[in-house]
Design goal:
228 residues; globular
């Protein structure tokens, strides 16, 4: 995983320490790039799509052919993100490579306003996965742990109650609108999770699950389609 100097600098600030010289230099360079990135993220039309594709191809771990990076994306630490071919990251989605690696397969659609935020163990979306509008997929979250705080990001890591676990969505799985997936969950091949569900445990292959927490309520037929 690519080292995240921004996270390290933020942790030093929370501990009451000053930035190192190298951190200060890199943060200053980031600040100078920010106006350019803001303009780039909001350019519409063919030119905007082409320029974003060129930019993300240069800064991400890997980007496949014919990917679409839509308007208003929020992408942090792109060096920890890889994306397969023919994948569309839709408007105002957010990919946070800050805490771990994100692996996104081919022919995936991540709909508007989705959030993908892995923990140190990473997060993977296999080929043909679909995320409907407003889905949140987390590989780390705060949890009630004895003698640890849950007061948010302004507490140093060593005092925070954090639950982490690798999240995987296997091939052809699908999340309905505004579904939330929590750390350590595997959503099985071809599984479908209904809208507004909260996924707290593994969902079996080719099953249909709904609810808070999500429970299996049915099965769907396996697909018999050619590889694209």
């Amino acid at each position: 995983m690519k080292r995240n100097y921004q996270k390290e600098a933020f942790e030093r600030m929370l501990e009451g320490k000053g930035f190192t010289a190298s951190q200060l230099l890199r943060l200053s360079v980031d600040a100078l790039k920010e106006p350019f990135l803001t303009i780039l993220s909001h350019l519409n039309g063919p030119a905007g799509f082409a320029l974003r594709r060129m930019y993300y191809k240069s800064v991400m771990k890997s980007v496949g052919k014919n990917c679409i990076f839509d308007v208003g994306l929020k992408i942090l630490n792109p060096g920890n993100i890889s994306i397969g071919e023919y994948t569309w990251i839709d408007r105002y989605a957010a990919l946070y490579g800050t805490f771990g690696e994100i692996k996104i397969g081919k022919r995936i659609h991540i709909s508007p306003n989705c959030i993908i935020s892995p923990g140190e163990m990473g997060l993977e979306l296999e080929d043909y996965v679909g995320l409907s509008t407003g889905c949140h997929v987390y590989g780390h979250t705060q949890a009630p742990v004895k003698n640890m705080r849950m007061s948010g990001p302004m507490v140093p890591e060593r005092y925070k109650a954090v639950k982490e676990g690798k999240v995987r969505m296997l091939r052809d799985s699908f999340l309905g609108t505004y579904t939330v997936v929590l750390p350590g969950v595997t959503i099985g091949e071809g599984a479908v999770v209904g809208a507004h569900s909260i996924v707290t445990k593994d969902i079996p292959d080719w099953s249909i699950a709904v609810g808070c927490p999500a429970q299996v309520v049915g099965k769907r037929d396996k697909l018999d389609l050619p590889e694209l």
